[in-house]
């Protein structure tokens, strides 16, 4: 979770999301990485959405599925130029800022809009490593981060869960 996004980390057996998943197609099932955009028609920060989830006895959720994209990046001794955030329960790293002097900014200059790394994108794996261990991979002195898998660009067709 970051201040602007409420991301599904996992579904609990016996919970509303788990029940929904049993009653729908696998393509519509709620899964790790999906983002909760609205609770009972209301938007808000991640903390506000969590408060609404806890306070309401009846829920209608608007959930968006995000596209995963892979990037192959050579650092060549330079910094990626990413300011990243991680929280205690995180399953990913959140891009908070992109430095103009970093490798990522240089890649973004020449990339199509759908192939750019953006603020609020989520890094879900680095060289196949997921979770907090991915942070160490990015922060290492290694000259090459072979593969970064990002979660970004949420689909425009939200799913509603009641």
Describe this structure in words.
The strands form two sheets. Strands 4, 5, 6, 7, 8 and 9 form a six-stranded antiparallel beta sheet that branches. Strands 1-2-3-10 form a four-stranded antiparallel beta sheet. The model has no long low-confidence stretch (mean pLDDT 79). It is 20% helix and 31% strand. By secondary structure, the protein is of the alpha+beta class. The chain folds into two domains: 67 residues, Pdz3 Domain; 87 residues, Pdz3 Domain, CATH 2.30.42. This is PDZ domain-containing protein.
Topology:
Blueprint: E1 6-7, H1 16-22, E2 35-39, H2 46-55, E3 61-64, E4 66-74, E5 82-85, E6 93-98, H3 103-110, E7 122-126, E8 129-130, H4 133-139, E9 144-154, E10 159-161
Q: Biggest sheet: strands, sense, closure? A: 6 strands, antiparallel
CATH topology of the largest domain: Pdz3 Domain
Beta-strand share of residues: 25-35%
Computed structural class: alpha+beta
By CATH reckoning, the class of the largest domain would read Mainly Beta
Spans with pLDDT under 50 lasting ≥5 residues?
A: none
Assign a percent range to the helix content: 10-25%
Question: Which radius of gyration do the C-alpha atoms yield?
Answer: 17 Å
> How far is the first residue's CA from the last residue's CA?
22 Å
* Number of strand segments: 10
Helix-strand string: EHEHEEEEHEEHEE
Mean pLDDT: 79
CATH superfamily of the largest domain: PDZ domain
Outline: elongated
Protein name: PDZ domain-containing protein
Organism: Durusdinium trenchii
């Amino acid at each position: 979770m970051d201040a602007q996004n409420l991301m599904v980390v996992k579904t609990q057996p016996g919970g509303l999301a788990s029940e929904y998943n049993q009653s729908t197609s696998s393509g519509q099932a709620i899964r790790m990485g999906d983002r909760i955009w609205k609770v009972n028609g209301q938007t808000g920060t991640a903390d506000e959405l969590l408060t609404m989830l806890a306070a309401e006895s009846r829920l209608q959720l608007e959930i968006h599925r995000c596209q995963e994209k892979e990037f192959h990046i050579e650092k060549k001794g330079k910094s990626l130029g990413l300011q990243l955030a991680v929280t205690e329960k995180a399953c990913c790293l959140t891009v908070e800022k992109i430095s103009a002097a970093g490798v990522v900014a240089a890649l973004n200059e020449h990339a199509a809009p759908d192939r750019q790394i953006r603020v609020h994108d989520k890094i879900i794996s680095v060289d196949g490593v997921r979770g907090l261990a991915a942070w160490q991979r990015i922060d290492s002195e290694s000259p090459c981060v072979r593969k970064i898998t990002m979660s970004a660009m949420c689909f425009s067709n939200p799913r509603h869960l009641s």
